[in-house]
Amino acid sequence: MATEPSRFPSVPELLVLKLLSEREMYGYEIVQAIALRTAQVLEPGEGLIYPLLRGLEIGGALKSRSKEINGRSRVYYSLTGKGKKRLDALAAHWSKLNGAVETVMTGGSYAV
Amino acid sequence: MPFDSVAERLLKGGVAPRHVRRYIRELEDHFSELTTQLHRSGCEIKEAQLQARARLGDDAELASAMLELPQLRTWSARIPWLIFSTIPPAIAYIAFAIPFIVVRLVSPRYSFRGSMLIWVPTSYAAFTDHFVNTSNLLIAPAVSAAFAMIIFRQRLDRRWALLAAASIAVIGLQDCSGFSEHTTVGSMAMKATFWTDSIRELAKAWRLSTIQAVLTLLPAVLLQRWPIRVNEDA
User: Fold this and answer.
1) Whole-angstrom Cα distance, residue B151 to residue B142?
2) Which of B23, B30, B72 minimises the CB distance to A28?
3) Residue A109 forms part of a structural domain
4) What mean pLDDT value characterizes chain B?
5) What does the alpha-carbon distance between residue B90 and residue B140 come to, in Å, rounded to a whole number?
6) Looking at residue B220, what is its pLDDT?
7) What ipTM was predicted for this assembly?
8) A112 is a domain residue
9) Which of A89, A100, B21, B57 could cross-link A47 (Cys pair, CB 3.0–4.6 Å)?
């Protein structure tokens, strides 16, 4: 996973990192939280959250641990130091991008 | 199970079984929670299951998202020709050292001088001979069978099992022990029959070498026709 955010940062990645910066969560919880907080505007293919989590874990942005819940083993994810840096970089980039798009949409010009 | 077909696609795509197991476990857990939630909100259980399955994404989507992560692929899926031509003979070499260790452990009071065993009673010599002969027949086929199982579990092209078995068989590893009658001195050694023996020695040992080679190739040959049971409809 690159440290520098790509030109158009992945929204699911940004949201996942943001949610996990608040507390440890498992996949289903993350999907529910995204749907709830975005008033169901963003509803990713629910199963696709796991490859994203796995990719972030391999890249060192997340770490995971298994917990036994009702006789089933459940994988909980949390943010690492690298993940925190990645979140900060993505969030800053996203803000800038969002501002630029917003300016264009409202007819103004964006000062760099 | 509802994700058998996803697991099968991932294994065939070279994803390591441990990553597949974890992914499927997470999907099943998610499916179960979603079904419960939909059922509680008034759906019939069958309908809740169908909706939950649809919300998770179809098999192709679920599989392709994981297949895009190259780090999850096993080395044997990335460079099978190298893995299955070099690792099996190396493991066989190590495995053929086990009889030496056992012979030493079984009777620590008999001392080795190099490969020579000295002051050995005839019962111990007989045990060593039988043990070594049995090991010669079992070790190489066991290593070959282990690789056939790995190839089956990882859903790799089964012809790689033939390469693995052939790379073990072609060396013709054998442990040798020799004790002359009523003597207290003998020796143990390991040799690569097809590489080190002269034609004359090969002719003497052809029976054991042939049986060993056939037994080594057997698991790989059987694997070519071994069925995979997947519930594609689930």
Assistant:
1) 14
2) B30
3) no
4) 84
5) 11
6) 94
7) 0.81
8) no
9) B57
Query: Is any Cβ of chain B less than 8 angstroms from the Cβ of A28?
Result: yes
Amino acid at B68: E
- How close B150 comes to chain A (CA, Å)? 24
Q: How many domains does chain A have?
A: 1
Whether A44 and chain B come into contact, CB under 8 Å, resolves to no
| Contact assessment for residue A80 and residue A63, using Cβ atoms and an 8 Å cutoff | yes
Residues of chain B with Cβ-Cβ distance to A31 below 8 Å are 30
CA–CA dist A57, A76 (Å, integer): 11
Confirm whether A4 is domain-assigned: no
User: Considering CB atoms only, which of A50, A55, A74 is closest to B27?
Assistant: A50
Helix, coil or strand: residue B180: coil
For B33, the closest chain A residue by CA position comes to: A28
Calculated CA dihedral for residues A29, A35, A37, A39, nearest 10 degrees: -160
**In this complex, which of B26, B34, B55 lies closest to A50 when CB atoms are compared?**
B26
User: pTM score, two decimals?
Assistant: 0.75
> Could you tell me the residue ranges of all domains in chain B?
4-72, 75-223
pLDDT at B234 over 50: no
Interface test with A, best of B29, B31, B67, B73 (most A CBs within 10 A): B29
Selected residues 75-104 of chain A with any CB under 8 Å from a CB in chain B: 75
> Does residue A3 sit within a domain?
no
The whole domain housing A48 covers: 11-95
Of A54, A74, A75, the CB nearest to B69: A54
The pLDDT, as a whole number, for residue B175 is: 79
| Most confident listed range (B76-85, B91-100, B182-191) | B76-85
List chain A residues with pLDDT less than 70: 1-9, 43-44, 108-112
**Using 50, 70 and 90 to split pLDDT, how confident is the model at B123?**
confident
Q: At what angle do helices B17-40 and B59-67 cross, to 10 degrees?
A: 140
* Whether B57 and A45 lie within 8 Å, measured CB to CB: yes
Which CATH number characterizes residue A69's domain? 1.10.10.10
